[in-house]
Amino acid sequence: MVEEIPDFYVIIVEPKYGGNIGAIARLMANFDFKKLYFVNPCEFDDECYSRAMHAHSLIDNSKIFFSFKEAVKKMDYLVATSSIESKNAKRHLRNALSLEDFSDKIFEIDGKIGLIFGREDYGLFNEEIAMCDTLIRIPSSDRYPSFNLSHAVALVLYSIYIKKQSGTLEKRNIGKTEKQKLYNFFHQLLDEINYPVHKKENTEIMFKRLMGRAIPSKWEYHTLMGVFSKALEKIKNKKKN
């Protein structure tokens, strides 16, 4: 029997159809995922429970939130999913990691991992994606790139499940507090060098995506913080003189 995967949370944002909710619950049971969160879901109707088959308990034990921020505030690492990928390497918000690469590295992470899936019609909004550490996209035809919500969940959970079956890697990532300190130092560094205001938001997202893909260890984190600290100190001293 495969052990429970306690650190993964499937977070569904504003689902509109009970059938999709039921199908997702059944899929989670198939792949041994236990934690299900919703943001402003539709009614859990008869079709929802019918599609869930023997996974009713996942729906009954799910947690409902009224805002995206509330749902993800206790997560240590956020994974956005989207069928829309930027074709411009300079637009970092929707520069996506492949599902295969993501599954290869995700077990290096320690803590609560939120797997976030958006609305059936609009997916995730840009501001929601910007809050996430990484974005993944399931490879598909350019002629019809978008998946049904429950099908997208199936592919992501299957990919993670298969990797877990083959053994996990040593946990190596930094926590939420350390990540926030790192992002704050980077923000300060941009301020101190008078980085162009119109480029700042995109550059900060780029740095978050870079760290999300790299999954730095605590040793790497402390090295980066040391570099940023010294750089900020020198810049401030130079300004004083």
Secondary structure blueprint with pairings:
Elements: E1 5-13, H1 18-30, E2 33-39, H2 46-52, H3 56-60, E3 63-65, H4 68-72, E4 77-81, E5 97-98, H5 99-105, E6 113-117, H6 126-130, E7 134-137, H7 149-165, H8 176-192, H9 197-214, H10 218-240
Parallel strand pairs: 1-2, 1-6, 2-3, 4-6, 4-7, 5-7
Number of strands: 7
List low-confidence stretches.
1-6
The pLDDT mean sits at: 86
Write out the CATH superfamily name of the largest domain.
Answer: SPOUT methyltransferase, trefoil knot domain
Domain unit count: 2
CATH class of the largest domain: Alpha Beta
| Strand order in space, largest sheet | 3-2-1-6-4-7-5
- What multimeric state do the chains show? single chain
Order of helices and strands: EHEHHEHEEHEHEHHHH
Provide a brief overview of the structure.
The protein is an alpha/beta fold and 241 residues long.
Task: Note down, in words, how this protein is organized.
With about 240 residues, the chain is of the alpha/beta class. The protein folds into 2 domains: about 5-165, Alpha/beta knot; about 175-240. Helix content is about 50%, strand content about 15%. The chain is built from 10 helices and 7 strands. It has helices at about 20-30, 45-50, 55-60, 70, 100-105, 125-130, 150-165, 175-190, 195-215, 220-240, and strands at about 5-15, 35-40, 65, 75-80, 95-100, 115, 135. Strands 3-2-1-6-4-7-5 form a 7-stranded parallel β-sheet. Helix 1 links the parallel strand 1 (about 5-15) and strand 2. The longest helix is centred in the last third of the chain and has 23 residues, at about 220-240. The relative contact order is 0.14. Mean pLDDT is about 85; it is low at about 1-5.
